Task: inverse folding
């Protein structure tokens, strides 16, 4: 694999500050209630682990595995469930945590899937949103940053399973 030429798009400090704000807003949204926070694997694990530490509520952690890219840089439109949550969501306050919403296909699929389980309330948060998502039907309750239509890696996001461990978001100059 040719190594990516990376340039920082969103710094570690910017992420930290934004995640803190999102945590406060979500705490306010569910004020005094318990929530089930669902981490969509693999991409959102880093955002998820930082975000839940900024939420001042009782949080039950669940993990939902989906894959839509299969190693490519464009969405295939096909969403494959690789891991399901372990407890029923009926009557629960659910927060779905995503890494990035691009076409919105994955988010739309996940919302349909989770709403079918009859949660009391379902709220969605994504660290990043691309312009195509803004034009799609999918609604998002909270997001960290809107970015240009460029392929990004880091802070949980990969390119062919690499670069997830970068503490910041970078764009790949030799891919876009
Ligand atoms: P969507 O279904 O909204 O088109 O795509 C959502 C999924 O595509 C994300 O959860 C993520 O896995 C992947 N994805 C979309 N854009 C990017 C990107 O710029 N970089 C990386 N690494 N993954 C992306």
Result:
């Amino acid at each position: 694999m040719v190594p990516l030429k990376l340039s920082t798009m969103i710094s570690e400090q910017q992420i930290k500050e934004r995640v803190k704000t999102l945590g406060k807003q979500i705490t306010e949204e569910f004020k005094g209630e318990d929530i089930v926070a669902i981490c969509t694997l693999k991409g959102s694990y880093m955002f998820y682990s930082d975000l839940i530490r900024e939420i001042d509520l009782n949080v039950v952690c669940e993990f939902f595995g989906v894959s839509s890219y299969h190693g490519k840089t464009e969405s295939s439109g096909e969403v494959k469930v690789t891991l399901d949550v372990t407890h029923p969501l009926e009557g629960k306050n659910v927060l779905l945590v995503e890494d990035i919403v691009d076409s919105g296909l994955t988010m739309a699929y996940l919302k349909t899937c989770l709403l079918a389980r009859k949660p009391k309330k379902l709220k969605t948060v994504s660290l990043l949103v691309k312009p195509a998502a803004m034009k799609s039907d999918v609604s998002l309750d909270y997001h960290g940053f809107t970015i240009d239509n460029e392929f990004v890696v880091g802070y949980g996001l990969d390119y062919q399973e690499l670069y997830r461990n970068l503490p910041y978001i970078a764009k790949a100059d030799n891919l876009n």
About this structure: Helices lie at 12-29, 45-52, 105-115, 131-135. The beta strands are 6-10, 35-41, 59-67, 80-83, 93-101, 121-129, 142-146, 152-153, 169-172.
